[in-house]
Structure formats: C-alpha cells, structure tokens
Write a structure and sequence with these properties.
By secondary structure, the chain is of the alpha/beta class. The chain has two domains: about 40 residues, no CATH class; about 120 residues, 3-Layer(aba) Sandwich (Glutaredoxin), CATH 3.40.30. About 45% of the residues lie in helices and about 15% in strands. Strands 1-3-2-4-5 form a five-stranded mixed sheet. Helix 4 links the parallel strand 2 and strand 3. The longest helix is centred in the first third of the chain and has 19 residues. It starts with a helix and ends with a helix.
C-alpha cells in the first residue's frame, strides 16, 4: 500500500497546482490502479500452483457401471473399486455446490492415489443420483473398497474441510 499512497499524494499536489482537476482525477484513478497492481505480490514467471491444474474426473452413468457397480444388472450392491471412492453430486446452477467444489478438488489432489474422487452432475446423471437417493445437493457419497450397500455413506450439504478429512481418514483405515 505504500506505492499507492505515494502516487496518490504526488498527483493530488500536482492537481492543486495546475487546477486541472477533471483530467488529473482521471489520471489519479489510472495511476492508483497501476500502483495497486504493481505492489501486488505475484508468482515468478513460469511458476504454477500444482493444485490449480488438478481436475476431478466427471462421472457419468456408464463409467459408474463399468468401474464401481452396474446397478442396471440388479443383484446385491458390491462395489468393484479397490480403494475409497468419493463422489460429489452437484449441479452447475447450485450456489452451495460452487462453494464446495474448490475444497473438494483440493482434497482430491491431496489424496491422489489413495482415494478416487469423482464429480457427478445430477442434471446429466439423474439415474445415478436416483440410485443413491440424492434429493438435495451438494451430496457427497463415500464408497469404501469392496463395499456392500450398508457400507456406503452419504452426507448432504457442504461439508467442512475437517468433516471431509475425518470421514476420508475413518474409511481408509
């Protein structure tokens, strides 16, 4: 903020001396914008945040049937997955879902390899949402490795980071 203050005072003094207030008030605004941007800390060129490039796999009905459980075939639920699967049921238009999504993605990047994270859009995958009884979004479903129906957990609403972390840790032990 020192940069912004210095530029602001210099230009105001100049405006008072020349009595060209309108022109220099415009310049003041532009100078303040550039000063603010110039004082901002930024990453070095070419440096990227590892988490910013990470994306959670979007799950659809066909992928779920192939990789986790084919619910259309009938029979008792027994998941095929070898590790914990966490599914975030969301919709693009859902405000709480948009709040939850970045944290969910951060956890997915944190647990990569140990746990598989998916996102499932309820508008595009209504059969999958119906299978899990998703009536409200966001809903997070936890499917432990080789789980039976009574071992699948469902949490409705935006989970705190602590609750999500505790649930994942309890199911991966």
């Amino acid at each position: 903020m020192e940069c912004l203050f210095f530029w602001g005072n210099s230009i105001i003094f100049y405006i008072k001396e020349r009595k060209l207030k309108k022109l220099f008030l415009s310049l003041l605004i532009v100078a303040m914008m550039f000063s603010f941007v110039g004082c901002k800390k930024s990453a070095k060129k070419g440096e990227k945040d590892a988490k910013s490039d990470f994306e959670v796999t979007h799950l659809d009905d066909a992928m779920f049937k192939q990789e986790i459980f084919d619910y259309s075939a009938g029979g008792e639920f027994l998941s095929k997955n070898e590790s914990l699967v966490v599914i975030d049921f969301y919709a693009d238009w859902c405000g709480p879902c948009r709040v939850y999504s970045p944290m969910f993605t951060d956890f997915a990047s944190k647990y990569v390899g140990d746990t598989v994270f998916y996102k499932a859009n309820v508008d595009k995958n209504s059969a999958l949402a119906d299978f899990f009884g998703v009536n409200s979004i966001p809903t997070t479903v936890f499917i432990p490795a080789k789980a039976k129906a009574d071992e699948v957990y469902k949490e409705v609403g935006v989970l705190s980071a602590e609750n999500l972390n505790n649930k994942i840790n309890s199911l991966t032990k």
